[in-house]
Amino acid sequence: MSAALIGSHRALPARTAQAPTSDAPSKRRLRLTKRGRVVFTTLAAIPLVIGVAVVGLSAGGAAANTAAAGATFTYITVDPGESLWQLAESIAPDADPRDVIAEIMNLNQLSTAGVEPGQRLAIPQRYAAE
Fold first, then answer.
1. Where, by residue number, does the polypeptide cross the bilayer (predicted)?
2. DSSP-derived secondary structure letter, 9
3. pLDDT for 11-61, tens place per residue?
4. What burial class does residue 87 get, using C-beta atoms within 10 Å of its C-beta: 0-12 exposed, 13-18 middle, 19+ buried?
5. Which residues contact 98 (CB under 8 A, 6 or more apart)?
6. Residue 85, CA distances (Å) to 13, 100, 118 in order
7. Cα–Cα distance measured from residue 101 to residue 127, given in angstroms and rounded to the nearest whole number
8. Which residues lie below 8 Å from residue 115, measured CB to CB, with a gap of 6+?
9. Phi, psi at residue 47, to the nearest 5°?
10. Amino acid 21: pLDDT
11. What mean pLDDT comes out for the span 70-95?
12. β-pair partners for 77
């Protein structure tokens, strides 16, 4: 290398980092990916689905209570050793006992088919006439 080239070397100006000023508005926008939009939409829809389910379930109970409010029932008392099957056969001998038992359980809001002696059960009106 020649001496002329060595002497002509100039120092490069130092780069200064410019920090963004707090006065300038941010030009960045939030960009959601397809997956992000699906997650966001799902999270927004969950409260709506829960609300519709609560309203739907509570309205069904009110309708069932108002239908039974004005009805009159015939009651029968369970004898010792008597089962719902025997009771169904005695009040509706021509009907399928399983159907009669299901109606009695539904009408009396029984969770099981077990009954106790002395228990009073409402009988569906169409079987009470027989």
1. 38-59
2. -
3. 656 666 565 555 656 678 878 899 999 999 999 999 999 988 888 888 765
4. buried
5. 88
6. 102, 9, 16
7. 11
8. 78, 82, 83, 84, 87, 121
9. -60, -35
10. 58
11. 86
12. 120
Residue 76 DSSP one-character state:
E
The whole model's pTM is what?
Answer: 0.46
> What's the CA gap between 124 and 103, in Å, rounded?
7
For 63, the token pair is: 């309708």
Q: How many residues does the chain have?
A: 130
Name 122's bridge partners.
Answer: 75
At 74 the three-state DSSP class reads strand
Pairing of strands 120-123, 74-77: antiparallel
List the beta strands (DSSP E) in the chain.
74-77, 120-123
* Radius of gyration for the chain, computed over Cα atoms and rounded to the nearest angstrom: 40
DSSP 32-51: --HHHHHHHHHHHHHHHHHH
Q: What architecture (CATH level 2) is domain 72-130?
A: Roll (3.10)
Distance CA 52, CA 45 (A): 11
CA distance 26 to 54: 43
